[in-house]
User: Fold these one by one.
Assistant:
Number 1:
Amino acid sequence: MNKTNAVRILEKNDIKFRTIEYEVDENDLSAETVALKVNLPFETVFKTLVARGDKTGIIVACIPGGKELNQKAFAAISGNKKVEMVHMKELISLTGYIRGGVSPVGMKKNYPLFLDESALLHPEISISAGMRGMQVIVSPNDLIKLLNAKVCKLTS
């Protein structure tokens, strides 16, 4: 198993998790494809989105694959008038991760994290382990505690 920053942080904090590795298709990094490859229900595979708020700066959302981020709701919840997704070319410098491998755990800075409330419907959710081709399966409650995440409705 590859030891990513996310995996190291989960281990250091004694958080129970497991990883699943899969073959990456550079042309299809969608959460739906990941769910099929790791044989998990689609609604439990969460994608990590990095945005910039007009008042707060960088903020992070974790939403279920297949859902779209409601940017108006995200702006209101995060104390902004508007939010915009950061450009792909900024991902590495802001988070330390590349597109398709962005994990909410182990970013370069502790940005405010907002987790879609649907995560609490599942005993475990899947998030990127911090690299393409590897997912971390973890309790949403452990993730919330570790990252001080705010749970809210982020999708329409």
Note: The domain at 5-150 is CATH 3.90.960.10 (YbaK protein).
Number 2:
Amino acid sequence: MNVTFLGTGTSTGVPVPTCACGVCLSTDPRDARLRPSLLLRWNDASVLVDTSTDLRQQALRQGLTKLDAVLYTHAHADHVFGLDDLRMFNWRRGGAIPAYGSPRTLAAIRRTFWYVFEDVEAGGGKPLIELHEVEAPFVVLGRTVVPIPLHHGTLPILGYRLGRFAYLTDVSAIPETSYALLHDLEVLVLSALRHRPHPTHLHLARAIEEAARIGARRTLFTHIAHDLSHGAVAPTLPPGVELAYDGLTLDTP
């Protein structure tokens, strides 16, 4: 499976409007972070994890012309507000795109994008998606996807595991029962917001502790705020732990 990081930033993206900190003014392209999203490819399949606010820009930058499914982690703005941009992929596909998420997440998407699911005038068109509630492993285009229950502050959200790869973003805590779903990973993607503790996200030191406990061969941190400079932080990380960046690609079982 091929993995591409479409966006590795937090809800504001980096640089942050109105900010003149060193990271926001950085000329290192790894410090320029769009809102969080991931593209998974295997065989002829192309699957998004979340439709970030920056989906249009991400699709153009990656030359993405085909989309077969979406996996939603939760319904916060930075993870779903690109949903309307699925219209273009509907036209190319010639039909609806299946989207998977928890019942809570899909209910929130129905509220936020009410016009998609009600019989109203389409105007310039509206996205066509088929919502599928998931609470147990399911199959997408021939691959088994395992939902991983997580905590984002007090909000229950999902990560996803496919084969020996797992994507856990916006995490503040991992329930004890979820660790059993994370054994024997080749690649773990885990959020690491900033240096200081945060009520709804893992900060860098806690993310390093979680990475050590899970024990994947390779761990990449994402959902990174403008507190963390790639050039300054990357050399300080333990062996096997890295900062992801927009456009990074890798192959994993």
Note: The mean pLDDT is 97.
Number 3:
Amino acid sequence: MRFMLITAGLLGISNISLADDKWSFTLEGGVIYQTVNVVEIPPGTGTRFSLVDSLGSGPIPYFRAEMNYAINERHRIRLLAAPLSVEATAQTNQSINYNNVTFSSNTDTTFLYQFNSYRLTYAWRFLSNPRWNGDFGITFKIRQADIALKQGSLESNFPDLGFVPLLHFAAQWKFDNKWNIQSDLDAIASQYGRAFDFGLFVHYRINPNWSVGAGYRTVEGGADVDIVYNFAWLHYAGLRVKAYY
């Protein structure tokens, strides 16, 4: 009887440690395939062209780093760094007027697409039980973007540093103490543009301090304003390593 009580107590402690982690650190990496990446700068007078044609559809390597801190049972903060930069040299069958600079057709041109995202999230846990966790909150996003073209000594770029507030949602479904499905969403939409970042990953808990995962992420959105038109749709195939403390 004493052995059974001790064993049950240890299992209870294990369940708590698997469910209620104060800190977690996630590294996510893999490849991206882009199906849409259309640019026109400035809208109306610039040339609308596809960066999928010049950069290729993929695979493009990526990585993201995330830290979560549970303030208490109901409140959490998250820090996320998601850099992305891809560059390639290609020729186009049309001249491109980009940012009031004209680039000739059938000439080697270097294209750069950069979209770095840095986010701070506050989330409130509205659902918590042995099988499900659900969080809702707000994300404060700093966007560091740039699209550049270079053709010999001729070059032009359009750097854009801005702040975007996003709604945040996250959920976790636990099969048992080893397997779970995790999803996360940062999103906003308005008449000037939209931003959606949704991920769905299956995780396997190796031990109380480590888990590994694999899944899919999609990022879609862009802006249609007076100075820039750019919409992209990216698809991520990713692996994760997650540490818990």
Note: The two ends are 32 Å apart (CA to CA).
